[in-house]
Design goal:
By secondary structure, the protein is α/β, with parallel strands linked by helices. It has 7 helices and 9 strands, in the order αααββαβαβαββαβββ.
Length: about 220
Amino acid sequence: MIKGIEAEAKISSSWTGRRTISKKVLAAMANVPRHEFVPEGLRHSAYDNCPLPIGYGQTISQPFIVALMTDLLDLQGDEVVLEVGSGSGYQAAILAQLVKKVYSMENVAQLVVSARKRLQWLGYDNVEILWGNGYQGLPDEAPFDAVLVTAAATNMPKALLDQLRPGGKMIIPVGSQGDAQQLKLLQKTPRAGIETRAVLPVAFVPLLDQIFSDASMQT
């Protein structure tokens, strides 16, 4: 898997501006048992460099994309990060090794329950998985040093930008499902302006401005 990430980083460098992924991000990718975050029937493909379905219309992202999005945040280790789109908890587990605290939001109740159990069992104790509408972010815990969004927004969520501290970075796919999507990197300037650059064409499930619950939801 790591060799696949490194190879794709070189191939895509003309878009991303990064020919390599940092050693600390690659180490985090190597440390997380990706097979624990995919359905049992797909574990034979867990370390392939491709996305996989995890149910409820959601996916676990391609390892290269996880590594790239993480690397683009240039994390130093003392950050508090908001992730939008917990899914199975894989991206949160990667971030947990690189930052002080991860708040991760998911709008599908069943995935919240399973991700919490999985991360607790694996010992990631600096992650909180929260049920909520990612478009609205988590204002009670803001400002965040970085925001990472793992689903494509049709419009840039203003609430997430508002919750980013000055100097902080956000990585987010933007565009409609089935149409052209772009992975975008944003940085808030000291005077609350936003600098933006397109990184790479991507394909993500949509970021929905709603939440889903059922009887399995536990607090």
